UniProtKB/TrEMBL annotation:
<dbReference type="InterPro" id="IPR005135">
    <property type="entry name" value="Endo/exonuclease/phosphatase"/>
</dbReference>
<dbReference type="GO" id="GO:0004527">
    <property type="term" value="F:exonuclease activity"/>
</dbReference>
<feature type="domain" description="Endonuclease/exonuclease/phosphatase">
    <location>
        <begin position="8"/>
        <end position="194"/>
    </location>
</feature>
<dbReference type="InterPro" id="IPR036691">
    <property type="entry name" value="Endo/exonu/phosph_ase_sf"/>
</dbReference>
<keyword id="KW-0269">Exonuclease</keyword>
<keyword id="KW-0378">Hydrolase</keyword>
<keyword id="KW-0540">Nuclease</keyword>
<dbReference type="GO" id="GO:0004519">
    <property type="term" value="F:endonuclease activity"/>
</dbReference>
<dbReference type="Pfam" id="PF03372">
    <property type="entry name" value="Exo_endo_phos"/>
</dbReference>
<keyword id="KW-0255">Endonuclease</keyword>
<protein>
    <submittedName>
        <fullName>Endonuclease/exonuclease/phosphatase family metal-dependent hydrolase</fullName>
    </submittedName>
</protein>
Length: 230
């Protein structure tokens, strides 16, 4: 039987909703690696992230901006790459001007049997044109690993947008095409979270077994659980 790796991509809404429900969701998914968007930040950032990981039965490895990598016992992330992503500080929101927090992406290599691959997580911004510049920076980081890779994240855009088209142009496979909506958790009606595979890597989306009540309470996004195989 071929070895597999369970990877959970999840926007955890700053660990600010129902923490007990969130822990139940993650534990039900039983990931080997968790790629987090909107990890807790501000005061005591690393302490909060380690505490959050502990509630999942996992360990905090690395982060950039509000993206983080957590691993289960016995899983090793090699050569973590923490990349700051340029994004416009200001963006237009209706008739107002709003600010954006700095962007980032984080990734690392893992071994699946005798096969080496990279896992990368990002959270693209709300500025429409800015997102495209951010993605190019993220893709450069993905290529720098020199291995097949899985790219996940909150893309803040639906599949008919330019970000998804650019990912297809890059030759990546959209794993979530048949997985359903990811936002909001209480009333799913948009697919704005992605999981994309580069050529040479096989994977599929797995069903989430957590309860609807826990999923709605845990975060404003739904998680994506990916099984990778060599």
């Amino acid at each position: 039987m071929s070895p597999t790796l369970r990877v959970l991509s999840y926007n955890v809404h700053r660990w600010g909703d129902d923490r007990a429900a969130l822990a139940r969701v993650v534990r039900a998914c039983a990931p080997d690696v968790m790629l987090v968007q909107e990890a807790p930040t501000w005061w005591g950032t690393q302490r909060k992230r380690r505490a959050m990981a502990s509630t999942f039965g996992m360990h905090y490895v690395a982060a950039s901006a509000r993206n983080a990598i957590l691993v289960a016992e016995g899983i090793e992330i090699m050569n973590p790459l923490q990349r700051r992503i340029w994004r416009p500080f200001l963006r237009r929101r209706l008739r107002l001007i709003a600010t954006q927090l700095p962007g980032g992406a984080v990734g690392g290599r893992v071994t699946l049997g005798s096969f080496e691959l990279a896992l990368v997580v990002c959270h693209l911004g709300l500025h429409i044109r800015g997102r495209q510049h951010e993605l190019e920076q993220v893709l450069r980081g993905c290529r720098s690993f020199g291995t097949p890779y899985l790219l996940v994240g909150d893309l803040n855009e639906e599949p008919d947008g330019p970000i998804w088209k650019r990912l297809a142009e890059e030759g990546l496979t959209d794993l979530g095409a048949d997985a359903g909506f990811t936002f909001s958790s209480a009333n799913p009606h948009k697919r704005i979270d992605g999981a994309h595979l580069s050529p040479g890597l096989a994977g599929r989306i797995l069903a989430i077994t957590a309860t609807k009540e826990d999923l709605a309470a845990a975060s404003d996004h739904l998680p994506m659980l990916i099984e990778l195989s060599s």
